[in-house]
Amino acid sequence: MVYRCCSRSRASAQRNSRTFRVGRPKPTEAVVQTDVRRALSEDVDSGDCTAALVPADARLDTRVICRETAVLAGRPWFDETFRQLDCKIAIEWSVDDGAAIGPDQEVCRLHGPARAVLTGERTALNFLQTLSGTATRTREYVDAIAGTGAEILDTRKTLPGLRHAQKYAVLCGGGRNHRIGLWDAILVKENHIAAAGSIPAAVARARQDQPELLLEVEVETLAQLDQAFESGAQRVLLDNFPIERLREAVKRYKGRIGLEASGGIELDTIRVVAETGVDFISTGDITKSVRAVDFSMRFA
User: Is 219 exposed, middle or buried (0-12, 13-18, 19+ CB in 10 A)?
Assistant: First the structure.
């Protein structure tokens, strides 16, 4: 198991899942090492034939500069890239993950063997650009609903191989993590309901088999919402509900069951959704449609 997740007994479970965090992940050393090892294998493979042209004893002093307004994320992956290439590379950070940064701002300095610095440059910046892009997009969504009481959740729509890294970046941007994967929470969706026979049947089986896990049901109508609540679900995913239907769901069930809006929600429409009074809004846009932040490495 990669992340330590909150768990609760059947007796202590609360119907309103606002207080239940599926995961509060901080990347473990093993996760970061695996991500970096895979990335370096893709890029370096049998060796860097261009860096080999540089004298073996040459050393470099470099600075990493951000070219735009962003939120920083990815330091553990950046550091690990150079650690795996040459532990003699020293890195001094001037900005923490989660901090707002601006154009032409220096975020860190490196000093060490030139060959290793040159070899790791692209891989390290790839992590920093992608994860900072994730954090930056998340912060835009968080800022868009400020003051409404709703919270931004991510989804499983992450870039292949970067699930754990992007979940971490979402936290850096001020969002919250939904389930990390298929193992740490139950989300009963349309096809699960069809296969199980009904919402009550699916919920009953989940409660019997894994009562310690958060149990959420995706619903498309108010009638299904009623069924999910009566069956004992702790949270409902209100899939593609129009605004008026969201308001009605909130009117009926606010404070009685966790209410999560999802589906077709974008940055320019999200505040209207948040103002209905839902507890959570989940969006894949913050991870699957990420635009890399522009960083560059300048050599002294």
Answer: buried
